[in-house]
Amino acid sequence: MNRNARLARLAGVTMTGPDTFEAHDAAHAVRLLVEHCRADDYPDMRAIAAKVATTAGEIQEWIQHAVRFEFETGEVFQSPPVTLARGVGDCDCQARLFLAMVAGLPQHGRSHVQRRALGFWWDGADAVHVAPYVRASSSGPWMACETTVEGVRYGEDPIAGAVRKAALRPDLARAFGPVHIIPL
Asked: Euclidean distance between the first and final Cα of the chain, in Å?
């Protein structure tokens, strides 16, 4: 069984092509994204990270400048290399890129990232936004790393940062309530 077929089975979604999936609801789409992020292993993305940044905050800022946010029709899960090559992606595409790149940070010192996670905001049954989170120790605070709004700072609440930057898109305006963090 290939990687994508295994991920589709784990997430309870249907494969509609070699690299395409159909999720029947938001909960299954979230599960697919989580399983993708857990399985992602892109040495090229780690190598790029090592060249452009030394901290998670620097990777966050680099992606804010290198990848433009773009709404999708339906839900597309593109790999981190595709997101970087295209230079565009929605929140889940950018979160996957960030998490793939942050894996290239040194495993010691001030830039150490011990844990990675995804933070989801919901509006009823719809997942309306996702952002990557990291922390330096098993008991330290989760730090948000919003990549889709330029100028949102490392550790800043993504929704508050979008409001501060006057960049509250329709998806972010629907993101009510607390963030739901899923560790990877």
From this structure: 22
SS3 97: helix
Q: Give alpha helix (H) positions in 41-174.
A: 43-52, 56-66, 80-86, 91-102, 158-164, 170-173
Cα dist. 183→88, 115, 120, 141, 144 in Å? 25, 7, 11, 12, 13
Domain boundaries, the chain: 45-183
Give the residue among 45, 63, 182 at the shortest CA–CA distance from 105: 45
pLDDT of residue 183: 93
CA angle centred on 149, ends 182 and 113, rounded to 5°:
45
Coil, strand, or helix at residue 72?
A: coil
Residue 136 to residue 26: CA distance in whole angstroms: 30
The token pair at 160 is 């508050």
Task: Give residue 19's Cα distance to chain centre.
Answer: 18
CATH number for the region 45-183 comes to 3.10.620
Q: What is the pLDDT of residue 9?
A: 87
pLDDT in tens, 96-123: 999 999 988 876 555 567 789 999 998 8
What is residue 67's predicted lDDT score, i.e. its pLDDT? 98
**pTM score of the predicted model:** 0.91
